[in-house]
Fold this protein.
Amino acid sequence: MIFLRHIKLLNTRYLIQNSRNMASFYVKCVDSEESLEISFDYAHRGGVMRSFNACRPKVEPVQNSLTRIAANINKHINKKKRKKTDTDLVEVRLVVYQSDSVTKVPENTKVEDALQHGNKVVIDESPYTVDVNPPLCRSVVIPQSIMVGFPLYPQLDLSFADLNDSEYVWEKIKYKDSGDADKMPAKPDPSKIIERVKVCTELSYVPTNEDIGYRLAFTCIPRSGQRVGRPCNTESKFDVTSGPGLCPFEHRHLYTQKETNINEIRVVSYNILADLYADQEFSRNVLFSYCAPYALNIGYRKHLIVKELKGYNCDIMCLQEVDEKVFRHDLSTIFEVLGYHGVMMEKTGEVREGSAIFFRKSRFRLVEEYREGLQSLLETNAICSDIVKKVYAVPDLKQVLETRTTVLHVVALEPIDQPGRILLVANTHLYFHPDAGHIRMIQTLIAMRYIEHLYQVYKKNKPSLVFCGDFNSTPHRAIYEFMTTQSVKEDNIDWKDGGDDQFVPEMNFSHKLHLENGCGKPAYTNFTEGFNGHLDYIYYDTDNFEVSQVIPPPDHKDVEFHTAIPSIVFPSDHIAQICDLRWKQSSNL
């Protein structure tokens, strides 16, 4: 990618305020790349300032590179002149000097050696200082759906820059034709700006009612210590709107206004509804036909998801149905700024969604991450040898299991205030089919075998467990019985879900952990027009934890106000499960 290809320059008044950027000849040069990238701003003898970019091989003679750059400048300048029938064509030349501004660099010097930090480049009569690997913002993107009361977090692509050192400016802009979508072009004409006001100098901004009818512009000035890079900015394509107003999850925030005490942790488990399932024809017309189409768009739902999760002030978040792009471009960046570290595991196969786990960095340190496909564990790990022997003896069941893409995602965390101890946080999303209780039960057996294996790995660290997920199973089914009573018997009705062709006799299994569900038994955690039921759980280790608070679910009248969820005020068809767990005194090291 050409250096700064996608950067939109800040308007001229900001460039004038930072004269250091006006006289810089930026060079990106890293050991792992064979070419270096060049970027600078040039205005020919009082003309309009323009950005120029070039990508040249490091070993190329500097004169060859300068000739190519000069040709691009001359082409641009003379193109303008031909339109005016001016035959006196300009021929700009570039010369490189050493840092003393006197000694000319030999023309056959490799461009990598010639463009050393502090050397000088003269373009026509304009002097520049070579700035190698300056703080850089390659691109900046802000949401195009902007609503009052919902925080905005830009997507920044930074190099050689520190997020905390960099400077940020949010502005609101009023155009002559604001409010009339038919008259507003895709790229508004700056000459039609009738008002431009700075509203914030933080990375994040929450629009207010006073911003309705304005567009927002965001500028990043990348910095690293005393070094300052060139500004990068962008502008929204649409005006700020009022949005949905108060959302039901904001009532739940009343219980989570403060962070937990040092002897407690707040855990959230939430299936956030992947975009690849929400915003498709079947979902819009059948599955979620009761929901306004715009509210199924991920650009809209992201605002609600981020605001909801941020307000829970949790220590651990286990999310399911997380789109890879949403994690990479939004969640990981946003929650990193908020003090969290996040990891994601996609499902096996070609599905680009999966599990994400976030933890508060002030409370935990990541010791290890484990990414396991349940089918791979079943087939290759000796801990599942008795299970695979039974289930693979039934061909039809074997065939179904081999097509499942379910994963188990586990992180081993060390509490900052309890060094040497290990908290295992597991996350999963089991197979969804209504008549597949036996498949989900087998997946749970595999997951628990692996978790028990990790207990042995960390035996000296007195391990504890929080196991979250969308288990796609209600409390009266086999999984809940197995998890909370430590065993499941062959007479459980779930073993017959696959019919005679997939039935396996003598399926008696047990585990040694003492687990309970942290949020009890709510009436439902998934509520659509065609189904509602309790599918989501936060299983916790009762030897080490006790529940100190369960965050109440939203009022049922709010859930069904728009028929079902998702809706304009609920971003998912699931409801986040949240509880506070207190470390037991006897469990301390």
Notes: The two ends are 52 Å apart (CA to CA).
